Amino acid sequence: MQKIGFIGLGIMGSHMAANLVRAGYDVTGFDVVPAGVEKLLQAGGKPAPTIAEAVAGAEVVITMLPDSPQVAEVVLGLGGVFESATAGVLLIDMSSIAPETSIEVARAGTALGVRVLDAPVSGGEQGAIKASLSIMVGGAAEDFEAARPIFEDLGRTIVHVGGHGAGQTVKAANQLMVAGIISLVSEAIVLLEASGVDGQRGLEVLAGGLAGNRILDLKAESMLGRQFEPGFRIDLHHKDMGIALASGRAAGVALPVTGVVAQLVASARAQGYGSLDHSALLKVIEQLSGRLEA
Length: 294
Ligand code: NAD
Hints:
Layout: E1 3-7, H1 13-22, E2 26-30, H2 34-43, E3 46-47, H3 51-55, E4 60-63, H4 68-76, H5 81-84, E5 90-93, H6 99-112, E6 115-118, E7 121-122, H7 124-129, E8 133-138, H8 141-152, E9 155-162, H9 166-194, H10 199-207, H11 214-224, H12 234-251, H13 256-270, H14 281-288
Parallel strand pairs: 1-2, 1-4, 2-3, 4-5, 5-6, 8-9
Antiparallel strand pairs: 7-8
Helix pairs in contact: 1-2, 4-6, 9-11, 9-12, 9-13, 9-14, 10-11, 12-13, 13-14
The structure holds nicotinamide-adenine-dinucleotide.
Nicotinamide-adenine-dinucleotide (NAD) binds at residues 7-13, 30-33, 36, 64-66, 70, 73-74, 95-96, 121-122, 124-125, 231-232, 236.
């Protein structure tokens, strides 16, 4: 499988598509925003003016879009992927969306002879740049094996977690953990600073003990410096917390901490921080204690 159509060339997709070009694939890409297509062109890929032209002749189509409505529109909609994809094509949706939408897309694909995998990722923009993403894959085992070489050019930890939609459920679990950990790192920063303890030294020692985690490793410095360039936008994390809560409801389980953290993310968004990195949850935690500087 050498010819790939790539739809959604944003913060993540542009780097992932560039890595596939570098790995030797023939990549044709489409995005509604010209900047993404321009990045693909610079990386050595081919721009397509429509979804149909990105999909024409492709053996594999990858989508990396914001949310369920965009995936439904791009794949199932008028002029979408399934209008042009021929039987045998493999559609790999790497967006983080609701598991039900992944299942709906897979059902529609099966009816057309198109194979479908949901394969959301974790690792952020740096993971996309360095091809070190974690990739959680739902779908048929043989389709996973067929796609494995592509996944290996995009990530490092690649696991087939179950049937259609299972990748999205694992991603929801990932997102509730990430938002929860960012909230706790924020509380640690607020406590240290309010107590007159140097935040940098405090977090340095925390990172070496049982409290050590990837958020501390990757974001302690930018959080202490109040740098909130995305990265992963609050708006997208708000979407993911909704998916996590809905998935918990569908599974009939209580996720109490997720509920509280989802409200903190909602507050961040309501206060106009939607375009900032999710580490801007620190601003919400600071505000609760009257410690947010203008
Ligand atoms: P993004 O908003 O930067 O990129 C999405 C791209 O899709 C944009 O370029 C947008 O123009 C394009 N798009 C939207 N509607 C379209 C349409 N109808 N047709 C064609 N293109 C369309 O988002 P991102 O940060 O790259 O995230 C993409 C997905 O990956 C999301 O589901 C997100 O939750 C997930 N994700 C993001 C990160 C991260 O750190 N940014 C990490 C892991 C997972």
